[in-house]
Fold these 2 entries.
Entry 1:
Amino acid sequence: MVVVENTAAVHNVIVCTLCSCYPWPVLGLPPAWYKDPPYRARMVREPRVVLAEMGCPLPADAEIQVWDSSAEVRYLVLPQRPPGTEGMTEAQLAGLVTRDSMIGVARL
């Protein structure tokens, strides 16, 4: 497993272009759209458009990195810490994290 970190300048998103490699022991069963061939192909070709369609618009100056999972390597996104959470405990912060934020199709 490899963890990639979202920052103010870089947004990471995970896809598996060949199959449906997904870290289900960590995240549970994958959503149906994750295995959908059009989603997988479009996320590689036009990630900004697909993310906006999924409710995750990004600033125009944000770099998007698409990571292709495989049978050998599975990726997870470490979401960027949301503003205003500086006083929260680790447990409280963990409660904000969602499956979609760890795939990269949502921001916290």
Note: The beta strands are 2-5, 10-15, 63-68, 75-78.
Entry 2:
Amino acid sequence: MDTTFYNKPETSPALKALYERLGKKNTAPLWEVLGEIVTPLPKARCAPALWKYDEVRALLMEAGELISAQEAERRVLVLENPTLRGGSQITPTLYAGVQLVMPGETAPTHRHSASALRFVLESGEGAYTAVDGERTTMHAGDFILTPSWTYHDHGNPSEAPAIWLDGLDIPMVNMFSASFAEHHPDETQPVTRPEGDALTRYGTALMPIDFTPGRRSPLLSYPYARSRDALDRLARNGPVHPAHGIKMQYVNPATGGYPMPTIAAFLQFLPAGFETAEYRSTDATVFCVAEGRGTSRVGDQTLAWGPRDIFVAPSWQPVSHTPQGEAVLFSFSDRPAQKALGLWRESVMAD
């Protein structure tokens, strides 16, 4: 497709003089920028990139020796896209980081406008996240929610580090100048509900009769063991999608919609010997390897990944995955926001 959709007029001395006068009045000629801001195809605005977990973990553990969780508020290494350095962005609308809570530490209770997810990488034995008065013990592969404006804290009473991937809609919130944040009166919020309460109430295909569904999931945690078992069963039952393998999305069980208004999350199983067809969509997507090894072709780059590595696929760039043996990929994106605005598109690219 022709990407020179709009042609700029030739700039005469008279036009240059007009531009100077326009600038003094805080105005500008649309015809000079129209091709940059109204494009016939999406401009990715970020690049394919890969973060090797072992390398990030070594740096994170070094940080753990130099600064405490209390001093840092949250001891996190931000994963910055190479084309968005300094902006704390992995994609134009999403933030990602790798967080560490050392044995015996707690990260203080706060809340903020941004919605957050956690994908657990290392859990120790007994590390937890608490959200609005309920704690959930973290296990590797668990998907955990911290919805907008909910008090949350983290603790690690175990003898091993707890590490997880954070995903937040901070850049989106800040684009709207809608960020608020505050601390809880207590460093650690009181526990007011037993562990597993949300999963019992909302995660068993039953709902309390007086429950009113909201825009975010009432669940706190989506245990990996249950999700992984579902993938295994579906892989045996088939069919296997040519572009996705066996791919499922995490949902709000009360509505069937996304778990949060701005962030979608997915889990997909890639069978041994399987290579996906090329796929592209307008939501730039962050992937984390839950299990296995393989390669992904993103645009014109080939990214080789292993357990707990993290990589990003920009908007509308073709993506294909080739596992070495079986593999499981977790991913998240801004798909709900795009769908709410009527902007989202996808395409499976035939051979």
Note: The longest strand covers residues 319-333.
